Amino acid sequence: MIVSTPLTPAVFAILLSLAGGDRHGYAMMKDARAPEGGGIAMGPGTLYGTLERLMRDRLVVETDTSDNERRRYYRLTDAGRLALETELSRMDSAVAAARQRGLLPQGGRS
Amino acid sequence: MTQPSPRSSMRIEGAYQFAICLYPVQFRESYESAMLQSLRDALGDPTLPRHTFLRTLLKDLIQSLIKENLAMLRETVSRPVLVYNALVLIALFSALTLGFVIIEQNSLRQSANDPQLGMATDLASRLARGTSASASVPNDQTDMDASLSAFVIAYDEQGQVLASSAQLNGAVPQLPRGVLDFVRRNGEERVTWAPRRDVRIASVVRHVSGARGGFVLAGRNLREIESRKDLVLEQAALVWLGLLGILFVGTFFFGWLTRAPSPATT
Description:
The complex is a heterodimer of chains A (110) and B (266). Chain A is mainly alpha-helical. Chain A is 50% helix and 8% strand. Chain A has a three-stranded antiparallel sheet. In chain A, 36% of the residues are buried. In chain B, a hairpin with a 7-residue loop joins β6 and β7. The longest helix of chain B is centred in the last third of the chain and has 35 residues.
């Protein structure tokens, strides 16, 4: 399916977290909170609401994995990975343009 | 970092479990235990400052409650078939209500002519038989504005008043010439006559046959009938609003019952 960009911060953070492998709810919240994961302070309501919409759009699926009957794990689908890559590419272009305009140091960490 | 007491964690979990009840049923049924587990994981995470997390949790709760309930509302009623059906029913209810109002108000207005029809016919017959207008028309002077009683007026062929059982502002008002011309051609006219801006009379005007000719008018004030017409309109408007309310609730309920199931999981 075609996903419009830019993604919302919560969607981006969840997809980025799941790009590192299957994750359960709190692991995604923790990843999202880290600066490299998007720096999003997300609670369970936003997390599961966003996950529901991502599953409906088939960007994420729930796995059978469980280390606890209440802890549910989620996985990125190919479409989800593509959406994430598209978003990263869009961000990369924006960062490159910002560098060209001197807003960011050349060759520096964005 | 100081670890919070288990009792404090249980209190937070209890409060959160209560707050989860405010989410839409389908969402709650799907994610309640997972959300509580995420909360437990967060409360048990020694690297996460408690006050920071509680602030995030409260903000998240408010935002996601609004978002999920609005999404539920949108998903429930925003299906084209459901909206189309609701619009068709609204149009149907509106047409039925409007039809009822028109028929009922027209029926009330027609019923306002009832005594005058007989009175005008009788008076025209008497005058046609040669009885004088002053002998045929009662002497009592009804106030056209204040009274709801029926009255009669006799006119000659030129439209001049011969006798009247009613007055308005101390005089007998003149009928519009057009009405008399119409009655001369057609024999009878049933018309709402406004001898003054705020006085409306349900009038039946008949032509008097015979050599002398002339016209008779039987009328009565429409105030009571018009107040009944207003009542019909008010009641119909209330019924219409009630039907719209039932339709809205019914559409929402039907939409809720027939919502798409949650996404499949693997």
